[in-house]
Amino acid sequence: MKIDGSRQHDRAIELVLAYYAAFNRGDWDGMLALLTDDVVHDLNQGPREVGKAAFRAFLERMARCYREQLRDIVAMTAPDGSRAAAEYVVHGEYLADDAGLPKARGQKYVLPGGAFFTLRDGRIARVTNYYNLQEWLAQVA
Q1: 57 to each of 28, 32, 50, 80, how far by Cα in Å?
Q2: pLDDT value at position 44?
Q3: Which residues contact 1 (CB under 8 A, 6 or more apart)?
Q4: pLDDT score, position 96
Q5: How buried is residue 95: exposed, middle or buried, by Cβ count under 10 Å (0-12/13-18/19+)?
């Protein structure tokens, strides 16, 4: 059965919002359940990682080094539901040193961010994250 474009659009928005709701709860298993096994993750100004195992390792590093909540989330999607984007504001605290970044001292930060998604078979197949690293560095300096 073919799903009409409006329903595909709505399901894509629901998927992206569920992904961020799981993030805000710290529910890493819930986030991983929304991803394809071969998920592609493009880190902000970093390497491309592939697969759920790499994504889990990323989430574990995030949980160790940062406490973040995403607010004012706006999700957008292509009419056919194959791609989506989200914009949000990150409210965070830098908890522990992350490799190649300044020393963590509990610095708080607020900055806009965004992500682009490829969606396939009701799951997220690609996440490309963006935030202004120079602005983050200025806030935690």
Answers
A1: 10, 11, 11, 31
A2: 82
A3: none
A4: 95
A5: middle
Q: What are the chain's domains?
A: 5-140 (3.10.450.50)
User: 51 φ, ψ to 5°?
Assistant: 100, 155
Antiparallel, parallel or unpaired: β 83-94 and 66-77? antiparallel
Angstrom distance (rounded) from CA 86 to CA 116: 7
Check residue 74 and report its DSSP letter.
Answer: E
Task: Confirm if 26 and 63 have CB atoms less than 8 A apart.
Answer: yes
Residues in the chain: 141
| CA angle at 51 for the pair 84 and 125, rounded to the nearest 5° | 20
Residue 111 forms beta bridges with which residues?
90
Task: For residues 2-21, give the mean pLDDT.
Answer: 83
Quote the DSSP letter at residue 135. H
